[in-house]
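Homework-ish question, so no full write-ups if that breaks the rules, but can someone show me the predicted structure for this set?
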Amino acid sequence: MTTEMILVGLAGVLAAAAPVIFAVIGETISERAGVINLSMNGTILLSAMASFGVAVTTDNLLLGFLMGMFVGALVALVIAFGNITLRQSQVAIGFVLALICRDLSDFLGNPFVGQPGPRLPFAPIAGLADIPVIGTLFFRQDLMTYASYLFIILAWVFVYKTRPGLMLQGIGEKPAAAFVRGANVNRMRYFYTILGGAIIGLAGPTFSLSVKAGWKGTLSGLDGIGWIALAITIFGGWNPLRAAFGAYLFAFLQWLGLVLQPSLPGVPSQVLQVAPFPLMILTLLLVNIGNAEWVGRTLAALPEPTRRFIARGLRAMRASPPAALGVPFESE
Amino acid sequence: MKVELRGIHKYFGKNHANDDINLTIPSGTIQGILGENGAGKSTLMKILSGYFHADQGEILLDGKPVKIASPAAALQAGVGMLHQDPLDFPPMRIIDNFLLRTSGDFFPNRKHAAQDINLLMKEFGFSLDPESYVDSLTVGERQQLEIMRLLFLGARVFILDEPTTGISAAQKAKLFETLKKFPEQAITAIFVSHKLEDVEKLCDRVAVLRQGKLVGQMEREQGKPFDNKKLVKMMFGKEAPLAPRQAYSQEGSVLRLNDVSVEDARLKIRNVNFEARAGEVIGLAGMEGSGQGVFLRACAGLIRTVGGTVQVKEKDLTGKSYHVYKNNGVEFLPAARLEEGLVPGLSLTEHFQLAEKAEGLFIKQDVGVKLAQERIAAFNIKGTPVSAVESLSGGNQQRALLSLLRTPLSLVLIEHPTRGLDIESVIYIWSKLKERCKQGSAILFMSSDLDEILQYSDRILVFFNGKVSQPLDAEKTSVAKLGEMIGGRGWQEEPTA
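A: Not a homework solution, just the prediction itself:
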């Protein structure tokens, strides 16, 4: 394999990860506010179908993407209403929505199956695209891939560097304390759930109008990605940067499976296809190893400076969920 | 800031939680509010801090009537509340806790904020690193953080809800020192407590609530302490005398530790030799995290010892699990009653059914209810067999935990037996524990309340940074001596930090 081929392959990884990035960023924002959007798998399928349908019918890509966001926001609104207003279980509502949306996409999408549709064009960025290596990797992509880079940075800056972002962390962590600080917890939860849903809704059209253009019903190969994105959100420790890293890792492992297949004829192809999943679990375990009690005890035997160094490293890697994730808030 | 409460009424259904409360607190004073659990203190404070709205009555700040719609509005009017469980964000940094609010720049200036925080800390003699994480702080330090944050946001009236619960004696001293600086800045402090001695030490004035009514007020006369007896009488409607010291120490070893070493991630306890006799009460004193908690859990088999042997009634249980300890008559009562001790969502009856040895597959409902009724009566629990445990007050939860203990027992290990309870419950719970001693159980307990340790223990072990003192005779030591020792001073040999 030439260097050029590898670079193009890796650029493909970045593009393939884009929809997963939208999904994990949207989910991260929603969960930071304390609301789990478990419908993600269904939302992605439904928004992929609906946006493809709109784009085919109107021949307008922008309307297609807007449709995707609208579908995502609508599903999130149902979850927010069910949980925040009606105080029902987020898990039950989200799970049922995941199933309903998947079946809806299959049923409503029938007329569009196999139809030729528009596709987001490549848009190399003049100047940047000609930089050796970096240009090929990052700047010969389509608009949504660029948007995915931007979303990662914006989401990270928002959550950690801005005042509303701190408040977002607060309402998911300890809503009672956020309430005392003047936040309208439930209104903000509505807002961020719907915003997160709209961003998740971008994942669908990014598939159906770009990465895996077209709509083939259940054969579109999108089913299941939402569940993986959910796992990546957790693996990412509710931090947009880490979640993005997880999405890239996942896309990279999948690509690696494809690339390695010819050179490993002894290994059944299924093994390589499935390998990313257990590898993700393993990574998850490794980053959270600092939580285990025996690790702390083992470390205690080390000399103090070494112990503190390792402990600090583990602490930086460790992630705990927003303490009020999934818990409705009542201001007494 | 002067605070006036006029004719405050608050009903919860039929329960008249606040009944015509009239209270005027002059600017720059420390006002104590005393009362049993359920006397209406919390309700009144929640009205002042915007959580509840009074059904009748008005609130005046500096003579102006104000409507307090929410906790945030209260703070804007100058009223800040320090909650028993600090309302901060443990996984975030101290500085983020300051910056987290609804008004201010979109991109907060962290450098300025850090400077402001450091300045404020200097003024009050605190030393916390603005960049450190809140979950690495002790409860006392988290209080300091909240006090600073409220000052930072311009609070002129501080409501402190049971602030001395769960903090060490040294931190309590520090807290009081801080509060005593308030009057010179014309800041008013309202100190809600059921601990007489705290109010005694700190407050200029006291108001006592009982069953929703303001039953009396007292002002400190220059240099004179409050009339304790009168206060107790006001709180309970009768005098509640402390039981005289009683020792039930008997022959026979219940717990013997030979060269026991225990460690966790932060500290190591080395080579402890100790023996507890039947009927003895051993108090474990020390600042939070000095090793007494680890030690207690090691005695219960909840933490594995790394060296030495543990014998319960001459039987070697070294390295065995809690289950084996339990079968040998050891019981452990955790401080987090609702998290570790009881099962929220289950009724009292169901708890007794779970605790007793089961016969057959199905639950015998009538037997369970009968048992529950007996125990509820025997332990004076305010609740019914069908009450869910989380609906009980703290004191009643602790009584429920005690009532679940089996008989006979060799050893009872208790973390903070009376944390957050009112005097009446404290006395009651200790009388029940002493009954256990009479039957031959030994009790080991840890507490941050040195008075409690001194009052109820026969012997005391002091912990400092993982080092364990020789057993001290409770009758021959004093709070001052204990206070020094838990701070690391006055040891026969200097403890190595």
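Now go work out the reasoning yourself. Hint: The interface with chain A takes residues 46, 51-52, 70-72, 75, 81, 87-92, 96, 99-108, 263-266, 268 of chain B (CB under 8 Å).
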